[in-house]
Write a structure and sequence with these properties.
This protein has 259 residues and is of the alpha/beta class. Helix content is 54%, strand content 10%. It folds into two domains: 60 residues, no CATH class; 162 residues, 3-Layer(aba) Sandwich (Rossmann fold), CATH 3.40.50. It contains twelve helices and five strands. The chain has a five-stranded parallel beta sheet. Helix 10 links the parallel strand 3 and strand 4. It is elongated and about 70 Å long. The chain starts with 5 loop residues before the first helix and ends with a helix. Belongs to the IS21/IS1162 putative ATP-binding protein family.
Length: 259
């Protein structure tokens, strides 16, 4: 025989909770009632548990929504980062960045290193930490970023798109300088950096060494100087070294497995 639940005994309570948008309470009400009876909890202790359930549900829902909007890869967390592959990495600085204290300072974080050394992973790991703190994050490649702005300009939605990019608490731009910028891409990038300067934090990853970052501005060196002056000011810098962790497929083993 199927047991009768507490919400079946008190359907009016369940309905009231739903109307108040306290579904987290509804989900755990039966369990908490039994727990309160078994442990002889006071009314205040019982209420605290129910409210705690609702707060936990809301935090989980918000984190899931922030993660979806951020476009972060779920596996690119700090727990999955291979520190052994980066023995020269400044672990102390990484630990500090993972607290997201730099966001309170509205400082940039610049990460450079050869292809496959974990720049994007580390940047996303910091993004995951920011989401855990309830911050809104957006991870995007420089190519996609400029492509979205170009499309928005054509369709007449440039101002709205630009405002969203300028407002996000943590903007992570991956693969800076992979494709040299021409006009008006360089102007768009400069304006975005200028709007976020000392207002919001930006993380940028690049295969270029810091001294080569002006190469991303193919035709306007003056604009490059103005942009990099803002990016480098008070920025936290990380350099990753080592060989690429992206190993090519072992053809011999593949052939044996198929043979």
């Amino acid at each position: 025989m199927k047991p009768t639940t507490a919400t079946q005994y008190h359907p009016e309570v369940a309905q009231q909770l739903r109307l108040l948008r306290l579904s987290g309470v509804t989900d755990s009400l039966d369990i908490r009632i039994r727990q309160a009876i078994d442990e002889k909890l006071s009314h205040l202790e019982f209420l605290q548990m129910l409210l705690g359930d609702e707060l936990a549900r809301r935090d989980q829902t918000r984190s899931a929504l922030l993660l979806k909007k951020a476009s972060l890869i779920s596996s690119k967390t700090i727990e999955q980062f291979d520190f052994a592959a980066c023995p020269t990495l400044n672990r102390s600085l990484v630990s500090d960045l993972l607290t997201c204290r730099f966001m309170g300072e509205a400082c940039p974080v610049l990460i450079c290193g050869p292809t496959g050394t974990g720049k994007s992973h580390l940047a996303q790991a910091i993004g995951h930490q920011a989401i855990r703190q309830g911050k809104d994050v957006l991870f995007i490649t420089q190519k996609s970023l400029l492509g979205h702005l170009h499309k928005a300009r054509i369709t007449g939605h440039y101002d709205r798109k630009f405002a969203r990019l300028a407002k996000v608490s943590l903007l992570i731009i991956d693969d800076y300088g992979l494709y040299p910028m021409t006009s008006p891409q360089d102007e768009d990038f400069h304006e975005l950096v200028a709007h976020r300067y000392e207002q919001r934090s930006t993380i940028i990853t690049s295969n270029l060494e810091f001294g080569e970052w002006d190469q991303a501005f193919a035709r306007n060196k003056l604009l490059a100087t103005a942009t990099l002056d803002r990016l480098l000011h008070n920025a936290y810098r990380l350099t990753l070294q080592g060989k690429s962790y992206r190993k090519p497929r072992d053809v011999k083993k593949t052939d044996v497995a198929r043979g």
